[in-house]
Amino acid sequence: MASPGLTEAPAAAARGAFLAGAATLAALYVGNNVPSALYALLRTTFGFSALVQTLLYAVAVAVIVPALLVAGPLSDTVGRRPLMLFGLGAFLLGDVVFALATGTGWLFAARVLQGLGMGAGAAAAQAMLNDSAGQDALGQRRASRTATACVTFGLALGPLAAGLLAQYGPLPRQLSFVVHAVAVAVVALLVLRTSRPARPAGARRRRPRLGVPPVVRRTFVIAGASSFLAWAVLGMFSAVVPSLVSGLLGTANLAVAAGALTLMIATSGVVQFGAGRLAPTAAQASGLLVLAAGLALLVVADEAGLAWLVVPAMLGTGTGHGLVFTGALHELTTVTPPAERGAVIGSYYVVSYLGLGGPVIGVGLLSLARGLSAATVLVAAVVGGCCLVLAPLVFLEIRRRGAASADDPQ
Q1: What are the entry keywords (predicted)?
Q2: Residue 311 lies in domain
Q3: Maximum alpha-carbon separation in the chain
Q4: For the residues 396-410, what does the mean pLDDT come to?
Q5: Residue 1's pLDDT is what?
Q6: What does the alpha-carbon distance between residue 208 and residue 189 come to, in Å, rounded to a whole number?
Q7: Confidence class of residue 240 from pLDDT cuts 50, 70 and 90?
Q8: Is 5 contained in some domain?
Q9: For 266-290, what is the mean pLDDT?
Protein backbone atom coordinates (compact mmCIF):
# COMPACT_ATOMS: atom_id res chain seq x y z
CA MET A 1 0.00 0.00 0.00
CA ALA A 2 1.33 3.41 -0.89
CA SER A 3 2.42 5.70 1.87
CA PRO A 4 -0.24 8.34 2.69
CA GLY A 5 2.34 11.07 2.43
CA LEU A 6 3.07 10.21 -1.19
CA THR A 7 -0.58 10.70 -2.25
CA GLU A 8 -1.90 13.24 0.22
CA ALA A 9 0.94 15.75 0.01
CA PRO A 10 0.51 16.46 -3.73
CA ALA A 11 -3.26 16.58 -3.29
CA ALA A 12 -2.91 19.04 -0.41
CA ALA A 13 -0.51 21.15 -2.48
CA ALA A 14 -2.98 21.20 -5.37
CA ARG A 15 -5.82 22.22 -3.04
CA GLY A 16 -3.68 25.01 -1.59
CA ALA A 17 -2.73 26.27 -5.04
CA PHE A 18 -6.36 26.15 -6.17
CA LEU A 19 -7.45 28.18 -3.14
CA ALA A 20 -4.62 30.68 -3.64
CA GLY A 21 -5.54 31.20 -7.29
CA ALA A 22 -9.21 31.69 -6.46
CA ALA A 23 -8.51 34.07 -3.58
CA THR A 24 -6.16 36.15 -5.73
CA LEU A 25 -8.72 36.51 -8.51
CA ALA A 26 -11.43 37.47 -6.01
CA ALA A 27 -9.25 40.04 -4.23
CA LEU A 28 -8.14 41.69 -7.46
CA TYR A 29 -11.62 41.92 -8.96
CA VAL A 30 -13.28 43.13 -5.76
CA GLY A 31 -10.73 45.94 -5.60
CA ASN A 32 -11.04 46.80 -9.27
CA ASN A 33 -14.66 47.90 -8.80
CA VAL A 34 -14.40 49.56 -5.37
CA PRO A 35 -13.84 53.03 -6.93
CA SER A 36 -16.99 52.65 -9.08
CA ALA A 37 -19.23 53.26 -6.06
CA LEU A 38 -17.23 56.32 -5.01
CA TYR A 39 -16.91 58.32 -8.23
CA ALA A 40 -19.78 60.65 -7.28
CA LEU A 41 -18.17 61.29 -3.88
CA LEU A 42 -14.75 61.76 -5.46
CA ARG A 43 -16.15 64.21 -8.03
CA THR A 44 -17.68 66.27 -5.21
CA THR A 45 -14.46 66.16 -3.19
CA PHE A 46 -11.97 66.93 -5.97
CA GLY A 47 -14.21 68.72 -8.48
CA PHE A 48 -13.34 66.84 -11.66
CA SER A 49 -15.49 66.46 -14.80
CA ALA A 50 -17.41 63.52 -16.29
CA LEU A 51 -14.56 63.06 -18.79
CA VAL A 52 -12.04 62.74 -15.95
CA GLN A 53 -14.36 60.23 -14.27
CA THR A 54 -14.34 57.96 -17.31
CA LEU A 55 -10.60 58.44 -17.79
CA LEU A 56 -10.00 57.39 -14.19
CA TYR A 57 -11.71 54.13 -14.97
CA ALA A 58 -10.02 53.68 -18.35
CA VAL A 59 -6.47 54.51 -17.24
CA ALA A 60 -6.30 51.25 -15.30
CA VAL A 61 -7.16 49.39 -18.50
CA ALA A 62 -4.40 51.26 -20.34
CA VAL A 63 -1.94 49.77 -17.84
CA ILE A 64 -3.55 46.33 -17.61
CA VAL A 65 -3.19 45.59 -21.32
CA PRO A 66 0.61 46.02 -21.61
CA ALA A 67 1.05 44.32 -18.23
CA LEU A 68 -0.82 41.31 -19.58
CA LEU A 69 1.38 41.31 -22.67
CA VAL A 70 4.28 40.54 -20.35
CA ALA A 71 2.77 38.82 -17.31
CA GLY A 72 0.52 36.24 -18.97
CA PRO A 73 3.19 34.42 -20.97
CA LEU A 74 5.87 35.16 -18.35
CA SER A 75 3.95 33.03 -15.85
CA ASP A 76 4.38 30.06 -18.20
CA THR A 77 8.14 30.43 -17.79
CA VAL A 78 8.89 31.68 -14.26
CA GLY A 79 5.81 30.31 -12.53
CA ARG A 80 2.45 31.62 -11.38
CA ARG A 81 3.32 32.57 -7.81
CA PRO A 82 5.84 35.40 -8.44
CA LEU A 83 3.45 37.20 -10.79
CA MET A 84 0.54 36.78 -8.35
CA LEU A 85 2.57 38.23 -5.47
CA PHE A 86 3.73 41.16 -7.57
CA GLY A 87 0.17 41.85 -8.69
CA LEU A 88 -1.21 41.75 -5.15
CA GLY A 89 1.57 44.03 -3.91
CA ALA A 90 0.94 46.62 -6.62
CA PHE A 91 -2.79 46.58 -5.94
CA LEU A 92 -2.27 47.00 -2.20
CA LEU A 93 -0.10 50.04 -2.88
CA GLY A 94 -2.87 51.42 -5.11
CA ASP A 95 -5.34 51.07 -2.22
CA VAL A 96 -2.99 53.01 0.02
CA VAL A 97 -2.58 55.81 -2.52
CA PHE A 98 -6.37 56.03 -2.93
CA ALA A 99 -6.82 56.30 0.83
CA LEU A 100 -4.17 59.04 1.13
CA ALA A 101 -5.24 61.00 -1.98
CA THR A 102 -5.29 64.78 -1.73
CA GLY A 103 -5.94 65.56 -5.41
CA THR A 104 -6.95 64.12 -8.78
CA GLY A 105 -3.35 63.24 -9.64
CA TRP A 106 -3.27 60.87 -6.68
CA LEU A 107 -6.37 59.12 -8.02
CA PHE A 108 -4.74 58.55 -11.41
CA ALA A 109 -1.60 57.20 -9.70
CA ALA A 110 -3.73 54.82 -7.65
CA ARG A 111 -5.56 53.55 -10.73
CA VAL A 112 -2.24 52.99 -12.52
CA LEU A 113 -1.02 50.86 -9.62
CA GLN A 114 -4.28 48.93 -9.54
CA GLY A 115 -4.08 48.34 -13.29
CA LEU A 116 -0.53 47.04 -12.91
CA GLY A 117 -1.70 44.70 -10.16
CA MET A 118 -4.57 43.38 -12.27
CA GLY A 119 -2.40 42.86 -15.33
CA ALA A 120 0.35 41.06 -13.43
CA GLY A 121 -1.85 38.90 -11.21
CA ALA A 122 -5.08 37.97 -13.00
CA ALA A 123 -3.82 35.74 -15.81
CA ALA A 124 -1.32 33.98 -13.52
CA ALA A 125 -4.01 33.32 -10.92
CA GLN A 126 -6.40 31.97 -13.57
CA ALA A 127 -3.65 29.71 -14.92
CA MET A 128 -2.80 28.46 -11.41
CA LEU A 129 -6.45 27.51 -10.94
CA ASN A 130 -6.41 25.40 -14.09
CA ASP A 131 -2.96 23.93 -13.37
CA SER A 132 -4.06 22.69 -9.93
CA ALA A 133 -7.49 21.37 -10.98
CA GLY A 134 -6.18 18.40 -12.97
CA GLN A 135 -6.25 17.94 -16.71
CA ASP A 136 -9.50 15.94 -16.90
CA ALA A 137 -12.63 17.67 -18.23
CA LEU A 138 -14.34 17.70 -14.82
CA GLY A 139 -11.39 19.41 -13.15
CA GLN A 140 -11.06 22.01 -15.87
CA ARG A 141 -14.76 22.80 -15.71
CA ARG A 142 -14.51 23.21 -11.94
CA ALA A 143 -11.61 25.61 -12.43
CA SER A 144 -13.49 27.63 -15.05
CA ARG A 145 -16.61 27.89 -12.90
CA THR A 146 -14.56 28.91 -9.88
CA ALA A 147 -12.74 31.57 -11.88
CA THR A 148 -15.93 33.05 -13.31
CA ALA A 149 -17.49 33.11 -9.84
CA CYS A 150 -14.46 34.86 -8.33
CA VAL A 151 -14.37 37.41 -11.13
CA THR A 152 -18.07 38.26 -11.35
CA PHE A 153 -19.04 38.03 -7.69
CA GLY A 154 -15.85 39.91 -6.87
CA LEU A 155 -16.81 42.68 -9.26
CA ALA A 156 -20.31 42.71 -7.73
CA LEU A 157 -19.11 42.78 -4.13
CA GLY A 158 -16.66 45.65 -4.70
CA PRO A 159 -19.14 48.46 -5.39
CA LEU A 160 -21.72 47.13 -2.93
CA ALA A 161 -19.25 46.96 -0.04
CA ALA A 162 -17.74 50.35 -0.95
CA GLY A 163 -21.18 51.97 -1.22
CA LEU A 164 -22.28 50.63 2.15
CA LEU A 165 -19.03 51.59 3.89
CA ALA A 166 -19.04 55.07 2.34
CA GLN A 167 -22.71 55.73 3.13
CA TYR A 168 -22.89 54.34 6.66
CA GLY A 169 -19.32 54.05 7.97
CA PRO A 170 -16.71 56.55 9.14
CA LEU A 171 -14.19 58.10 6.74
CA PRO A 172 -16.41 57.53 3.66
CA ARG A 173 -13.66 58.23 1.13
CA GLN A 174 -10.95 56.09 2.75
CA LEU A 175 -12.54 53.19 4.66
CA SER A 176 -13.26 50.85 1.75
CA PHE A 177 -9.67 51.11 0.47
CA VAL A 178 -8.26 50.39 3.93
CA VAL A 179 -10.49 47.33 4.33
CA HIS A 180 -9.53 46.03 0.89
CA ALA A 181 -5.81 46.59 1.51
CA VAL A 182 -6.03 44.38 4.61
CA ALA A 183 -7.81 41.67 2.60
CA VAL A 184 -5.14 41.82 -0.12
CA ALA A 185 -2.39 41.40 2.48
CA VAL A 186 -4.12 38.27 3.83
CA VAL A 187 -4.40 36.79 0.33
CA ALA A 188 -0.71 37.50 -0.34
CA LEU A 189 0.19 35.49 2.76
CA LEU A 190 -1.97 32.64 1.45
CA VAL A 191 -0.12 32.71 -1.88
CA LEU A 192 3.23 32.66 -0.08
CA ARG A 193 2.19 29.51 1.79
CA THR A 194 1.27 27.50 -1.29
CA SER A 195 3.69 24.68 -2.00
CA ARG A 196 2.66 24.18 -5.61
CA PRO A 197 5.74 24.09 -7.92
CA ALA A 198 6.27 27.48 -9.50
CA ARG A 199 6.50 26.29 -13.10
CA PRO A 200 3.45 24.61 -14.66
CA ALA A 201 3.80 21.06 -15.97
CA GLY A 202 5.03 20.99 -19.55
CA ALA A 203 6.38 24.53 -19.52
CA ARG A 204 9.66 25.20 -21.32
CA ARG A 205 12.34 27.74 -20.66
CA ARG A 206 11.68 30.23 -23.43
CA ARG A 207 11.33 33.89 -24.16
CA PRO A 208 7.89 34.96 -22.89
CA ARG A 209 5.45 35.77 -25.66
CA LEU A 210 1.78 36.49 -25.95
CA GLY A 211 -0.03 34.56 -28.62
CA VAL A 212 -2.64 32.05 -29.65
CA PRO A 213 -1.55 28.68 -31.08
CA PRO A 214 -3.17 27.69 -34.40
CA VAL A 215 -5.14 24.86 -32.79
CA VAL A 216 -7.27 27.32 -30.79
CA ARG A 217 -7.16 30.37 -33.08
CA ARG A 218 -10.67 30.07 -34.56
CA THR A 219 -12.12 29.44 -31.10
CA PHE A 220 -10.23 32.45 -29.77
CA VAL A 221 -11.61 34.80 -32.45
CA ILE A 222 -15.20 33.87 -31.61
CA ALA A 223 -14.68 34.01 -27.84
CA GLY A 224 -12.69 37.24 -28.08
CA ALA A 225 -15.25 39.12 -30.18
CA SER A 226 -18.12 38.09 -27.90
CA SER A 227 -16.17 38.92 -24.76
CA PHE A 228 -15.10 42.32 -26.10
CA LEU A 229 -18.76 43.38 -26.33
CA ALA A 230 -19.75 41.82 -23.00
CA TRP A 231 -16.92 43.52 -21.16
CA ALA A 232 -17.59 46.79 -22.99
CA VAL A 233 -21.00 46.81 -21.30
CA LEU A 234 -19.50 46.01 -17.91
CA GLY A 235 -16.83 48.69 -18.25
CA MET A 236 -19.31 51.33 -19.30
CA PHE A 237 -21.65 50.41 -16.46
CA SER A 238 -18.85 50.34 -13.87
CA ALA A 239 -17.67 53.80 -14.88
CA VAL A 240 -20.97 55.66 -15.18
CA VAL A 241 -24.04 53.66 -14.15
CA PRO A 242 -23.98 54.58 -10.42
CA SER A 243 -24.00 58.25 -11.45
CA LEU A 244 -26.66 57.61 -14.12
CA VAL A 245 -28.89 55.72 -11.68
CA SER A 246 -28.54 58.45 -9.06
CA GLY A 247 -29.97 60.90 -11.61
CA LEU A 248 -32.79 58.58 -12.67
CA LEU A 249 -33.80 57.77 -9.10
CA GLY A 250 -33.15 61.26 -7.74
CA THR A 251 -31.03 59.99 -4.84
CA ALA A 252 -27.58 60.78 -3.49
CA ASN A 253 -27.37 57.54 -1.50
CA LEU A 254 -24.11 55.88 -2.53
CA ALA A 255 -25.26 52.40 -1.49
CA VAL A 256 -28.44 52.59 -3.59
CA ALA A 257 -26.60 53.87 -6.66
CA ALA A 258 -23.93 51.16 -6.37
CA GLY A 259 -26.66 48.57 -5.88
CA ALA A 260 -27.71 48.86 -9.55
CA LEU A 261 -24.21 47.91 -10.68
CA THR A 262 -24.07 45.14 -8.10
CA LEU A 263 -27.40 43.77 -9.36
CA MET A 264 -26.11 43.60 -12.93
CA ILE A 265 -22.84 41.85 -12.02
CA ALA A 266 -24.38 39.50 -9.43
CA THR A 267 -26.94 38.43 -12.03
CA SER A 268 -24.03 37.58 -14.32
CA GLY A 269 -22.52 35.41 -11.60
CA VAL A 270 -25.77 33.56 -10.90
CA VAL A 271 -26.32 32.91 -14.60
CA GLN A 272 -22.83 31.44 -14.95
CA PHE A 273 -23.70 28.73 -12.45
CA GLY A 274 -26.95 27.92 -14.25
CA ALA A 275 -25.53 27.87 -17.76
CA GLY A 276 -23.66 24.58 -17.46
CA ARG A 277 -26.04 22.70 -19.76
CA LEU A 278 -25.46 25.10 -22.64
CA ALA A 279 -22.66 24.43 -25.08
CA PRO A 280 -20.02 27.20 -24.75
CA THR A 281 -20.64 28.66 -28.22
CA ALA A 282 -24.42 28.53 -27.77
CA ALA A 283 -24.02 30.37 -24.46
CA GLN A 284 -22.05 33.12 -26.21
CA ALA A 285 -24.59 33.52 -29.04
CA SER A 286 -27.65 33.63 -26.79
CA GLY A 287 -25.83 35.89 -24.36
CA LEU A 288 -25.21 38.47 -27.07
CA LEU A 289 -28.94 38.64 -27.84
CA VAL A 290 -29.90 39.04 -24.17
CA LEU A 291 -27.17 41.64 -23.72
CA ALA A 292 -28.64 43.69 -26.58
CA ALA A 293 -32.11 43.46 -25.01
CA GLY A 294 -30.82 44.71 -21.66
CA LEU A 295 -29.07 47.64 -23.30
CA ALA A 296 -32.27 48.53 -25.16
CA LEU A 297 -34.14 48.66 -21.84
CA LEU A 298 -31.50 51.00 -20.41
CA VAL A 299 -31.85 53.32 -23.39
CA VAL A 300 -35.64 53.37 -22.99
CA ALA A 301 -35.36 53.95 -19.24
CA ASP A 302 -33.20 57.01 -19.72
CA GLU A 303 -35.02 58.47 -22.72
CA ALA A 304 -38.50 58.02 -21.18
CA GLY A 305 -37.45 58.76 -17.60
CA LEU A 306 -38.81 55.37 -16.43
CA ALA A 307 -36.72 54.61 -13.35
CA TRP A 308 -38.41 51.23 -12.78
CA LEU A 309 -36.90 49.93 -16.04
CA VAL A 310 -33.44 50.12 -14.45
CA VAL A 311 -34.02 46.79 -12.69
CA PRO A 312 -34.93 44.73 -15.79
CA ALA A 313 -32.15 46.50 -17.70
CA MET A 314 -29.59 45.42 -15.10
CA LEU A 315 -31.02 41.88 -15.02
CA GLY A 316 -30.88 41.63 -18.82
CA THR A 317 -27.36 42.93 -19.24
CA GLY A 318 -26.17 40.80 -16.32
CA THR A 319 -27.70 37.68 -17.84
CA GLY A 320 -26.12 38.40 -21.22
CA HIS A 321 -22.71 39.08 -19.72
CA GLY A 322 -22.84 35.89 -17.68
CA LEU A 323 -23.69 33.71 -20.67
CA VAL A 324 -20.98 35.21 -22.84
CA PHE A 325 -18.26 35.14 -20.19
CA THR A 326 -18.82 31.61 -18.94
CA GLY A 327 -19.08 30.23 -22.48
CA ALA A 328 -15.96 31.98 -23.75
CA LEU A 329 -13.69 31.24 -20.81
CA HIS A 330 -14.74 27.60 -20.47
CA GLU A 331 -14.19 26.96 -24.16
CA LEU A 332 -10.74 28.55 -24.19
CA THR A 333 -9.38 26.90 -21.04
CA THR A 334 -10.64 23.50 -22.19
CA VAL A 335 -9.07 23.49 -25.66
CA THR A 336 -5.77 25.24 -24.80
CA PRO A 337 -2.68 23.06 -24.09
CA PRO A 338 -1.44 23.55 -20.47
CA ALA A 339 1.99 24.84 -21.50
CA GLU A 340 0.33 27.61 -23.58
CA ARG A 341 -2.38 28.47 -21.05
CA GLY A 342 -0.79 31.59 -19.57
CA ALA A 343 -0.18 33.09 -23.03
CA VAL A 344 -3.69 32.33 -24.30
CA ILE A 345 -5.43 33.52 -21.14
CA GLY A 346 -3.29 36.65 -21.23
CA SER A 347 -4.37 37.25 -24.83
CA TYR A 348 -8.01 36.71 -23.89
CA TYR A 349 -7.74 39.22 -21.06
CA VAL A 350 -6.12 41.75 -23.40
CA VAL A 351 -9.14 41.57 -25.71
CA SER A 352 -11.57 41.71 -22.78
CA TYR A 353 -9.85 44.69 -21.20
CA LEU A 354 -9.79 46.56 -24.48
CA GLY A 355 -13.55 46.17 -24.43
CA LEU A 356 -13.65 47.15 -20.79
CA GLY A 357 -11.85 50.45 -21.37
CA GLY A 358 -12.34 51.53 -24.99
CA PRO A 359 -16.06 52.39 -25.04
CA VAL A 360 -15.71 54.09 -21.64
CA ILE A 361 -13.34 56.62 -23.19
CA GLY A 362 -15.91 57.15 -25.95
CA VAL A 363 -18.53 57.94 -23.30
CA GLY A 364 -16.20 60.44 -21.66
CA LEU A 365 -15.42 62.26 -24.90
CA LEU A 366 -19.06 62.37 -25.97
CA SER A 367 -20.05 63.67 -22.53
CA LEU A 368 -18.20 66.92 -23.30
CA ALA A 369 -20.79 67.75 -25.96
CA ARG A 370 -23.86 65.76 -24.92
CA GLY A 371 -23.58 65.26 -21.17
CA LEU A 372 -22.89 62.00 -19.31
CA SER A 373 -26.41 60.56 -19.56
CA ALA A 374 -26.88 61.12 -23.31
CA ALA A 375 -23.35 59.89 -24.07
CA THR A 376 -23.94 56.68 -22.10
CA VAL A 377 -27.21 56.00 -23.93
CA LEU A 378 -25.60 56.57 -27.35
CA VAL A 379 -22.67 54.23 -26.70
CA ALA A 380 -25.05 51.62 -25.22
CA ALA A 381 -27.10 51.72 -28.45
CA VAL A 382 -23.97 51.22 -30.58
CA VAL A 383 -22.72 48.28 -28.48
CA GLY A 384 -26.20 46.72 -28.54
CA GLY A 385 -26.26 46.97 -32.33
CA CYS A 386 -22.87 45.24 -32.53
CA CYS A 387 -24.23 42.41 -30.36
CA LEU A 388 -27.11 41.94 -32.79
CA VAL A 389 -24.68 41.76 -35.72
CA LEU A 390 -22.31 39.28 -34.06
CA ALA A 391 -24.90 36.88 -32.62
CA PRO A 392 -26.00 35.43 -36.01
CA LEU A 393 -22.35 34.90 -36.96
CA VAL A 394 -21.80 32.88 -33.79
CA PHE A 395 -24.92 30.82 -34.50
CA LEU A 396 -23.50 30.11 -37.97
CA GLU A 397 -20.30 28.86 -36.33
CA ILE A 398 -22.36 26.43 -34.24
CA ARG A 399 -23.98 25.16 -37.42
CA ARG A 400 -20.61 24.81 -39.15
CA ARG A 401 -19.21 22.76 -36.28
CA GLY A 402 -22.25 20.52 -36.34
CA ALA A 403 -21.79 19.88 -40.06
CA ALA A 404 -18.07 19.21 -39.57
CA SER A 405 -18.85 16.66 -36.85
CA ALA A 406 -21.38 14.92 -39.09
CA ASP A 407 -18.79 14.64 -41.87
CA ASP A 408 -16.09 13.25 -39.54
CA PRO A 409 -15.63 9.55 -40.43
CA GLN A 410 -14.90 8.77 -36.80
Answers
A1: Cell membrane, Membrane, Transmembrane, Transmembrane helix, Transport
A2: 10-197+214-404
A3: 75
A4: 62
A5: 42
A6: 27
A7: confident
A8: no
A9: 86
CA gap 238, 337 in Å, rounded: 33
Residue 45 lies in a domain: yes
- The reply to whether 318 falls in a domain is yes
Q: How far apart are CA 24 and CA 132, in angstroms?
A: 14
What stretches of 175-253 show up as alpha helix (H) in DSSP?
A: 175-193, 217-249
**Size (the chain), residues:** 410
Domain count, the chain: 1
Cβ-based neighbour number of residue 103 at 10 Å: 12
- For residue 252, tell me if it sits in a domain: yes
Show Cβ contacts of residue 175 under 8 Å, excluding neighbours closer than 6 positions.
Answer: 165, 166, 169
Q: What pTM was computed for the model?
A: 0.78
Q: In this structure, which amino acid lies at residue 232?
A: A
Who contacts 258 (Cβ-Cβ below 8 Å, separation ≥6)? Answer: 36, 37, 159, 160, 162, 163, 242
Q: pLDDT (tens digit, 9 = 90+) per residue, 302-344?
A: 788 777 888 898 899 999 998 998 888 777 877 788 777 767 8
What is the pLDDT, as a whole number, of residue 241?
75
| SS3 of residue 198 by DSSP | coil
Cα–Cα distance measured from residue 56 to residue 8, given in angstroms and rounded to the nearest whole number? 47
- CATH number, domain with residue 218: 1.20.1250.20
